[in-house]
Task: structure prediction
Amino acid sequence: MRNAWLIARRELAAYTRSMSGYVILAVTLMVDALLFNTYALEGVRKSGEVLGRFFYVCSGTTMVASIFIAARLLAEERQAGTLPLLYSSPVRDVEIVVGKWLSGFLVVGALTLLSFYMPMLVLLDGRISLGHVAAGYLGLLLLGAASLALGTLGSAFAKNQTLAGILSGCMLVGLLVAWILAPVTERPLSDVFTALALHGVHFTPFQAGVIHLRDVAYYVLVTWVALFAATRVVEARRWR
Amino acid sequence: MIEVHGLTKLYGEHAAIRGLSFGIQEGEVIGFLGLNGAGKSTTLRILGCVLLPTSGRVVIDGLDTATQAHEVRQRIGFLPDTPPLYEEMEVGEYLAFVAALRGVPSGKVRARVEAAEEKTALKEVHRAPIYSLSHGFRQRVGVAQALVHEPSLLILDEPTSGLDPVQIIEMRALVRSLKGEHTVLVSSHILPEISQVCDRLLVIHRGELVAQGTEGELAGRLGAGASAVEVEVRGAAAPAVELLRGVPGVREVTVAAEVDGVVTLRVAGDGELRGAAARALVGGGHELLRLDRSAHQLESIFLQLTREVTRS
Result:
């Protein structure tokens, strides 16, 4: 995986030199802060409740930011004509995909950690459980990893970044609405929708400070499946 | 070094290349020639392990590109028709990235980058961001990335594309300088651009290999030994024309230009005329300024090869 790290490092350096990386970071943190102030801190609430609302808000911005970050990963290489460099180098397709995803994940990780001052603000006027904070952030990172993997898959399919964003958004929304479809369908279909729900079922426990192994396994599985599919798409592109 | 057997690439119903077979020996500089859309890039992308063929087989250094692509990629350097450049990177930084990606040990990366920059005359732009470079420099960076890991096979797809005449000469000199260190496969749609640097030419038309051989062999095949020579002499045209008409094998001598006492003559005939023409002119007391194979002939070789196939 040395090559994956090389690709990730180059991609990260590209983020630091482009405006888009800073814009995504700034806008996401600003929206997080605004919603934290207007929604999470609204009214008189217990500290745990504020934290739960904070992680709820952050989960939404993390998913949106992940799609924006991932859209460029492979589609931009295709647009810029740089894919032949990777394809003609002794680099495995899985290393290309993992390297790209990893760069995005590090940006999402930085974005998530930069919001850490908000839970700390709760300490000014209340008490928080560090376990709750850790669980919430673990959930955000797992959700970000899965959303980015879906975005990487969309980026592998699409010819340009716009299309990549739309495709990834559709996949993400598909997994989000599974939660809405679950109650209005009958078993076994409702069980399938429940198991697939990206946010409503699997993120809620993290939001409340609870870590279930099944939720961790779900996000890891979604990430793995999406990256596996993206690798297959990259391989298939060698036929065209 | 390279063996290509029955290579075919289909895009739906359309065959980009069909049944290509040829071989290349180690150390050769091969010109891959064809009109736009002939299938050159498709072939080179397959040889560069970027694209998979529909059928057929490519073996490089005894390794199959389909089943041992990873090993093959360590031995090749590929410049696609559009140089694969990361605009935001500096030239040296980009070459170091490519070297590392192509498996150069970290301790040797710096030396390899310096060597590649030396060969391609990029030292002056080592710290320049790629987006700020001219087209000529970008092409050179493209060549540098292909050779930074010192591959045994270099595949250069239209390296002279979009360059001005001076840059074309520089690129030609660069390709010539690679001879001996690498086996080089270089494509173009303009024969005179690459014929001077290549040991052998492969001519592809509508996805099929229509001819291969040296420039002289191709000319011989088309015109049953016909050749054309361009001559520049100082002095009057008439005596030089008379002398050249007396050279065995010469069929026609025409005056192409006469400027400031310098006459340009075009000599058409059979077989190799250059030696006899030079001896005749110098022996006749003429000041011979230039004598070479006519560029018009090179163009006509190529046009005839492609027309032959179109008619058949």
